[in-house]
Write a structure and sequence with these properties.
heterodimer, A: 223 residues, mainly alpha, B: mainly alpha, Cytochrome C Oxidase, Chain A
Amino acid sequence: MTPSTNTLDPHAHPHPTGLQHHFADMEQQADASKIGMWLFLVTEVLLFGGLFVGFALMQGRHHEAFLAAHHHLDRSLGILNTVVLLTSSWTMVMAVHSAQQGERKRLIVYLALTLVFACAFLGVKYLEYSHKFHEGLLPGKYYSHRGDTVPGQFMFFSFYFMMTGLHGLHIVAGMAAISWVLRRAMRGDFSGAYYTPVEIVGLYWHLVDMIWIYLFPLLYLIG
Amino acid sequence: MADAITVPSAAGGTAERRSYLNESRGLWSWLYTVDHKRIGVMYLWAVLSMFFLGGVFALLVRLELLTPKRTIMSAEQYNRAFTLHGAIMIFLFIIPSIPAALGNFVLPLMLGAKDVAFPRLNLASWYVYVLGSVFAVTAMITGGVDTGWTFYTPYSTTSASSVTTMTLAAFILGFSSIFTGVNFIATTHKLRAPGLTWYRMPLFVWGMYATSIIQILATPVLGITLLLIVMERVFSVGIFDARLGGDPVLFQHFFWFYSHPAVYIMILPGMAIISEIIPVFSRKTIFGYKAIAWSSVAIAFISFLVWGHHMFVSGQSRLAGAIFSFLTFLVAIPSAIKVFNWLTTMYKGSIEFKAPMMYAVMFLMLFGIGGLTGLFLGALATDVHLHDTYFVVAHFHYVMMGSTTIAFLGGLHYWWPKIFGRMYNEKLATVGAALVFVGFNATFLPQFVLGFRGMPRRYYNYLDQFQPLHAFSTFGSWILGLGLAVAALALVTSLRKKPDAPANPWGGRTLEWEASSPPITHNFEITPVVTHGPYDFYPEREH
């Protein structure tokens, strides 16, 4: 690039860390990112919304089968996972708060803790799933549980696996996002003036938690 | 105002003008680009390829229907041909055509922005689109799909054709649509140039904004519905299967909860383009700016409340049918507001019939027919008679092809000089537009009559008495194909030859015409400051 074109380029002047070329200032960039994330969260709610509506309709239609089927779920493990996820939400809030204050070490600790809780959630989920697999409590045509007194319980497990499975995928995606933010935090990318990635990953993580808050009573507490 | 800045390095004279097209060269500089203009151009070639592919299937379908019995293909091949025509045209052409190709290029320019809010997401959207196309083409090669583009259960969950691959393709394409929508809303909110208030925004931006809202709210529901089809096929989960205690009509509810709003994802961008072309080629301020702007938002809102009109004969309750019918009529109000405002804008304007304006006027006529015949179908009693006949086929082709695609072509001609810096061949383009108009009407007007006389849609064979009209329609499709070929020729030949386009060939007042043609990578040498409305053609008269 010749010097003459360089002086023409309005983007040749130095930017504050993290500011992309097409934004005027940090505030504009942070606002845009937040709008983007909120819109994305809306799509997530509607994605799960389809499953919730389907579940509600089918539960209304096969009430007894759903009631009988939900007794196969381990309520205490469900409660444990709810507590684990809620705690991870709190550590996430603290991570965002630390980022805001520019406290790098605390940010790293809280992000790491959030990851640990997310792993714990998946661990408990693994225990639950393997138990269901063992008992033949599987979705659709793979359902092979013996000794049912109420017929048609397979559909409950169709929904159980689709809903918790999709939610589980979101947990994994969230963990990937948190790991990315954690790596950037360790590299020292963030400061009190620039921490938007932490904030929007936090928003995403809270949504994933919130979906679980709805899934838990829906699946574990029919009655 | 950007012209006031002198460019010292351009003093060389013979050197090519610096622009986003020649700033960097080579295939990788395109594949790695985050420039909204380059992404728009990549989208443009992609959707045009798909338009060609879908068009070939359309011509094949029409050719088969030339005679009442077998003409060129078997019944199975026919089912696949019309499914692929529909699926390609809807998911791979119309939905991304205006927003992702033209909108991507024009919207940031119109806002005076350097780029969209999330350039990398924008590029990701293109790659996701390509991935979805690969899935769709794979579905075609591995046996095709024979369910129709609507994937109705129970047939779609039992058909032996490649339904799983095709539904996954549509699922993936949904992401690209959502990414574009998120980008446009965030860009419109945060990246407007100084002085560009909401009511100074070009109406194209309002249309894109309303479209984006629908893309964000409706697409995820289609996504989960298509996933449920896949689940049903793989696991027999039961939700859409009556034998297992599920409900096939529930699929129709889910599907149309997306796909009816999706109809407005397709038409709103078309209306948005018309709102740009008409004032510029009438040299007159748009009539009823706010009415047009808010009617776009109103259409987006109402679009979510009318899906049940696809199920008047699917066992929906009479009360629900009556309510959906009533709500459907409401859509006519904002649509009519737009049409009347466009007509009033043209009234006493100095109209110039260049190719974009020809397409805009064609739009007004064809959308008039398409929109009014929609009311026949929204009315309960007449729909029972017309449901699933060629009347429906003709109606939605008047809206999708006659309105949206015509508007797309108008927009393509209108912004072609801005995108590529070359003037297309006006004479040839005019001939192309005229042929498209004649061919389109010859193809689809007879189908209204066919449908009214009882010809069902999607049938391979038909009664001998329908042949004259079917044959007329098939001949029309050839004229339409020829018209499109001529239009393509008028555009593409300009890429090899001069003349270069001036920055503002049509005398538009919106910001994209203040950038050079083609624009530089960062769009404007200095960020423009907006001091007037988008259609103030005679600023000295205003105050």
